[in-house]
Amino acid sequence: MFKKSAEKSYNWLDDRFKITPLVEFMRHKQVPIHKHSLWYYMGGVALFLFLVQIVSGILLLLYYQPGVDSAYESIRFITTKVSFGWLFRSVHSWSANIMVFFVFVHMFSTFFTRTYSKPRELTWLTGSVLLVLSLVFGFSGYLLPWNELAFFATKVGTDIAGAIPLIGDPIKLLLRGGEGVTGATLSRFYAFHIALIPAVFTLFLFLHLLFVQRQGMHEPEFFHKLPENKKRMMPFFPNFVLRDALLWLLVLNIIIYLAVFFPWEIGVKADAFAPAPDGIKPEWFFMFMFQALKLLPAHMFIMEGEVFGILFFTLAGLVWFTVPFWDVFIKESMRPKIMKLFGISVIAFILILTIWGYLV
Fold it and tell me: The pTM is what?
């Protein structure tokens, strides 16, 4: 009975939306199996966490009220009065942080396996934009609870943006909606977080997934050199999809565990007239930049140390963003070693400064 009903439903949908070609495409699509196959799943986990963000964020929006006099109170109401509100808020916060982590893992795994090489330059570029948007997601959402740490961290973050030469002041004014961090800033960050950034993120995510599906899974150089009888492949559907879903369930269980046993704190309500508490720190994914700026002297060469640091990170971001285009100018025999050393140096720089920022 169930089989007949399923077939009837499938035929009804297929008659209207022609989904059989899509199913056949997924059945014939193959995924290489090799020692680096694990990294194929990292992008899927990041995608799943984005979906968790959407679902949990919509549930929070049912009760959240932006405003200096209502934001903190609505978060407290969600946490203490709404059934399972504390759980969904913690799930939203934990999944946001873990999503950024997996986006970083996906980016570095792509870099070390040289998946950015021709013809996947646009896949790398759209993925880089998604990384930046993920960081902006975290920054814009940090202020919404309107607690003390978020208020002063946002003040510091927008001050840093304001130090950018020539365009810093307009950017700072755009972010804050005025000279200081006020209710106007909260309203703008709310709009950025629930409307503008999700729309742009969804667009680039669609393009990224389209490129991946169109070009297929990347096959490493060593895989190309194997004889045909030694190459192992698995069908994308259902084999790879089921393994991906199993990993999604595992990640979801980890998030639920963290949300239940380590619920996200509400903190103290923000007070614009109170002094900044000691030890204000940004989110962990901004810590390496924050710590690097702290270590710079007041003046470097002909400019302020902070301005030098901002220009350095801007240039470094552009260099990383354009990897597929300057990688080809390195001698082919030296390319794997140089790029591997470059990638390890970037990871070491991020890890050392992040740990330093939390320990010192």
Answer: 0.92
